[in-house]
Amino acid sequence: MILPIVAYGDPVLRIKGKDIDEDYPKLKELIENMWDTMYNAYGVGLAAPQVGYPIRMFMIDPSPFAEDDEVSEADKEVLNNLKKVFINPKIISEEGEEWAFNEGCLSIPDVREDVFRKPQITIEYQDEDFKTYTETYDGLAARVIQHEYDHIEGVLFTDKLSSLKKRLIKGKLSNISKGKITADYRMRFPMMKKGR
Fold first, then answer.
1. Which of the residues 22, 32, 94, 148 is marked catalytic?
2. Is 148 one of the annotated active-site residues of the chain?
3. Is 151 known as a binding-site position?
4. Longest distance between any two alpha carbons in the chain, whole Å
């Protein structure tokens, strides 16, 4: 089932997610619904807070980035085979010299900005069967993970922008929070909850 994606301005996007265990209610169903929702919106990642669940879980499938001509063959291989659910993740380290990449977010439609992030991360997480892994990623794979990880920490990519950039997009963000935009997928706007 396709869930509405929570828009910028909703308090759930600012909550630090809680760890979950195998007994979390209807977890398999939530994961399936999140995959459906992410693909319906042509996303490469989706975090549970973006569909209204303040828990530490996100998923990624960065395979669309593998179609970019500038991506190396080795990176294409990684990106094409990285469809994965991360439960209770913890980034252990972020290393290297920060690099910029133009990021967007399903909760903030039609806003894209260059964001600086470190190129390599080591992350510990559990999969859908609650098996624990520690893995290292770099490049675009690391970036997608970092972006989704920020969501479960209550952080949005717009928080990482300069004060000038934040001022320039303030009007757009205000319109998103008021539902004064159109998106190609279902959204839930914070200002629309009251009275509807």
1. 148
2. yes
3. yes
4. 52
Residue 160 · residue 52 · CB < 8 Å: no
Does residue 82 contact residue 60 with C-beta atoms inside 8 Å? yes
What whole-number percentage of the chain has pLDDT above 70? 97
Q: Which residue has the tokens 């994961």?
A: 31
Buried b (16+ CB within 10 A) or exposed e, 4-39: ebbbbbbebbeeebeebeeeeeebeebbeebeebbe
- The topology under which CATH files domain 5-192 is Peptide Deformylase (3.90.45)
Q: Please state the domain extents for the chain.
A: 5-192
Tell me the pLDDT tens digit for each residue of 120-178.
999 999 999 999 999 999 999 999 999 999 999 999 999 999 999 999 999 999 999 99
Q: Is 105 annotated as a binding residue?
A: yes
Helix/strand/coil for 5: strand
Give 2's Cβ-side CA count (13 Å radius): 12
